[in-house]
Write a structure and sequence with these properties.
By secondary structure, this protein is an all-alpha fold. It has helices spanning 2-14, 17-44, 47-70, 75-99, 109-137, 140-160, 177-189, 192-207, 211-222, 227-250, 257-275, 281-296.
Length: 297
């Protein structure tokens, strides 16, 4: 919901694709810089308690963005708060992912990761559709009030859940954080398979996944759609991703996983290119479904 509302608000208030790119840089750069340190922190801390602290910081920053939009504050101030919130979210994601193995038996970790992805893709279906509908009938700041209130439910769930497994990596507490990061770098350097996986992950992340940031521009300029159309396109893409993650979670270990990875990465780019030629909402939605499916697999 916040992604749709923030991008639409920036485009409507500034009319600039440059500012749209800048605000999404404020969202994504912290994820690039802080993911590894956050992973190290997750290895050294009680992951559930750490998530509670992080989400407790996301809550007021979400309300603050809503206030700044309502007050028509300067763009630079909005960018600062978005960067702060994104820094907290950048830490939330690896810590949350690291918590999953503590919640299920080791034999079910792969399925648990796929189910977790499915749940998040379900939120990506409902969130943009709800945000698009709200933006058509109410002010943009109201989306942030609602989204902020939903974080209360996240905090309650974290207070309730109790990890059943003690599997973690806290045995190296004697090392400093820089040593842990160097250890990770050496591991990647000495593992050609991991290097290949990182390249296959980074290339689409840099050159393809930012389509979500530019989607308000695509919706408005290419398809002449309002916020409802923007919400539909993002929701359909998430529906495709949900189908992909559901398929992965139901089966046993995927045979020929490397081939699936390469083909789905290529398919992701091809479907995204074809979307640029869509002239109707139906065609665009169909291609967005395939984009979501390929990106998920």
């Amino acid at each position: 919901m916040t992604l749709v509302a923030l991008n639409w608000a920036v485009l409507e208030f500034t009319g600039s694709a440059l500012y749209l790119g800048l605000i999404n840089a404020c969202r994504m750069v912290p994820a690039f810089l802080l993911s590894v340190p956050a992973g190290v922190l997750a290895d050294r801390s009680d992951r559930r308690k750490l998530l509670i602290v992080l989400q407790a910081g996301v809550l007021p920053s979400t309300f603050c963005i809503g206030y700044l939009l309502a007050a028509a504050s300067p763009f630079w101030l909005l960018a600062v708060v978005v960067t702060l919130r994104s820094s907290l979210m950048a830490a939330v994601i690896p810590v949350r992912n690291a918590l999953i193995p503590n919640l299920v038996p080791e034999s079910q970790v792969a399925s648990a990761v796929a189910v977790d992805t499915g749940v998040r893709n379900l939120s990506r279906i409902l969130g943009p559709a709800i945000a698009g509908t709200l933006l058509a009938v109410t002010d943009v700041e109201n989306v942030f009030w609602i989204s902020g209130c939903s974080i209360v439910a996240v905090l309650l769930s974290l207070f309730v859940v109790r990890p059943e497994s003690k599997r973690d990596a806290v045995s190296n507490n004697t090392n400093d954080i820089r040593a842990d990061i160097r250890e990770a770098a050496v591991y990647v350097k000495n593992s050609p398979v991991v290097q290949s996986l990182l390249i296959l992950a980074v290339v689409p992340m840099v050159f393809a996944f930012p389509y979500t940031a530019m989607m308000p521009l695509f919706a408005e300029d290419l398809l002449q759609l309002g916020p409802e159309g923007l919400g539909i396109l993002l929701s359909v893409a998430a529906a495709g991703a949900l189908v992909g993650s559901a398929w992965l979670s139901l089966g046993s270990e995927t045979q020929g996983a490397g081939k699936w990875l390469v083909c789905s990465t290529i398919g992701f780019g091809v479907f995204l290119l074809l979307f640029m030629f869509a002239e109707t909402l139906v065609t665009a939605a169909a291609l967005m479904f395939l984009v979501g499916l390929a990106s998920s697999t």
